[in-house]
Amino acid sequence: MVQSGVRSVVSRRGPESPPFHSGPPPTPVPEPVPGPVTAIREVARRAGRYAVEVAGVAVAPVSVDTIAELKLRVGRLLDAPELARLVEASAMTACYDKALDALARRARSAKDLERWLADREHPRSAIVAALERLTALGLLDDLAFARAFARSRASGKGFGPRRVVAELGRKGVPRPVIDQVMRELESAADEESEGALSAPEREVATVRAAAEKRLRSLSRLEPEVARRRLTGWLVRRGFGVGVASRVARELLPR
Fold first, then answer.
1. Residues 237, 163 contacting (CB under 8 angstroms)
2. Bridge-partner residues for 35, per DSSP?
3. What is the largest CA-CA distance in the chain?
4. How many domains does the chain have?
């Protein structure tokens, strides 16, 4: 009887029944067509941006420069080429504003920002224009980004040079920039030590300091297990296998 009831419920839905929780289809957004400018409104939460309507259809906000360039005013008739320029300008403005918002949240390399904008389906021409403008304004600078990022990872998080190089690469920083930054870090370390320690000695001291902090979490393990895990952890932090193994053996002798 139970099986019969289940078949009955399924058959009542039928193949033509809509899926559960389905809502109305989304309303298609109308495309702007040549015609009169019917409204120009300042965008409340974005200074210098104006929403333009053409024949009653909203176009994404544009800058005040676009308003002046196209001589936009309510009632002015826009032909097809003028409307195309307006739509293109709105796409570039939207892309630039999104790029600014992304940089306000955290610093990025040019390549990282490019990928971020592409993932959000901004037109390629708009992305290129946004990157060029941000670079010209000094808001997008791979060298400055790499310097700050490398310092924070090396001194703030205790990462080794290999890890710093790998993370900068994943962020899209060009290899010549990475090499320059790593040379600067090494030079700064030389100056701070004033020749008291050689580069290999400084590396051992850095690895030892990181390892000693990590030891607290390994205190309940057998020495051999703790040594293996400590070595692996140090390697993942970006230190060489040789120096990581050496420090682990010194701190956790057999």
1. yes
2. 78
3. 89
4. 3
- 3-state secondary structure (DSSP) of residue 39: strand
- CB-CB contact of 38 with 52 (8 Å): no
Q: Return d(Cα 224, Cα 249) in angstroms, integer.
A: 9
Are 155 and 178 contained in the same domain?
A: yes
Q: Enter the tokens of residue 88.
A: 């293109």
* Lookup: tokens for 246: 């050496």
Rg (C-alpha) for the chain, rounded Å, is 30
**Cβ atoms 247, 226 nearer than 8 A:** no
DSSP structure class, residue 50: E
- Please tell me the pTM assigned to this model: 0.71
CATH number, residue 39: 1.10.10.10
CB contact at 8 A, 90 and 82 = no
**pLDDT tens, the chain, 254 aa long:** 444 443 433 334 444 445 545 566 666 667 889 999 999 999 988 889 999 999 999 998 999 999 999 999 999 999 999 999 999 999 999 999 999 999 999 999 999 999 999 999 999 999 999 999 999 999 999 999 999 999 988 876 778 888 899 999 999 999 999 999 999 988 877 666 555 666 667 777 777 877 788 888 887 888 888 888 888 888 887 788 888 888 888 887 76
Residues 132 and 146 in one domain: no
Which structure tokens are listed for 64?
């005040």
Nearest-angstrom CA–CA distance, 186 and 124:
38
